[in-house]
Design goal:
The chain has 8 helices and 8 strands. The protein has 213 residues and is of the alpha/beta class. A hairpin with a 4-residue loop joins strand 1 and strand 2. It is elongated and about 55 Å long. The protein starts with a helix and ends with a helix.
Amino acid sequence: MSDIYASALIRDVLTRRQIRSADLFERVAAYALDNVGNIFSARRVSDFLKSQSRKAGHDTVAEYLAALCDAFLLRRVARFDLRGHAQLAMREKYYVGDHGLVNALLGFSTGRLPGLLENIVQAELRVRGYEVSIGKLGDTEVDFVGQRRDERIYVQVATSILDPATRSREYAPLFGIADSFPKFVVTMDDLAGGTQAGIRNVRIPDFLLDPTW
């Protein structure tokens, strides 16, 4: 897998884009892979690199991220204002085409498990024909809003919601949505199940195998 990553990075991106600083580009790629499922901006990556004594303007970082998306190593997911019905231009999330690339480059870490689960869910939404965005509702966010023609689905993803505070946090954005489209909180909890105010709590494997959405 590491050979595939190196081959794609060099052949599909560095060579075709004629990127001069391979080291800087690889650092941007590593940052993105290490932050799958986290909201960040090109400026944030630029600031991080500066803290590591590496200079890269945010325009350059944005160009590198776009190149990684064009090569299908990354997939950008924009944020959407559910009240204003407008796409937001900043602070998007990035997901990886194959999470095995993350493990190959950075090794496995349980700290990346939330991002891995999100990566799986957004990929399944796309396979089923949904256009995927992150839903912003006031100060809260819905992990995924899937739009397929006149159908819509809202999905929150969490490793566990057994802790009451976590459960409240995950359900709160969905409670604020007034429409009747399907709403899910998907987790790894063995005892996941039930419905609250029309919101279904299901285990991730069951969600992925559910033919009804």
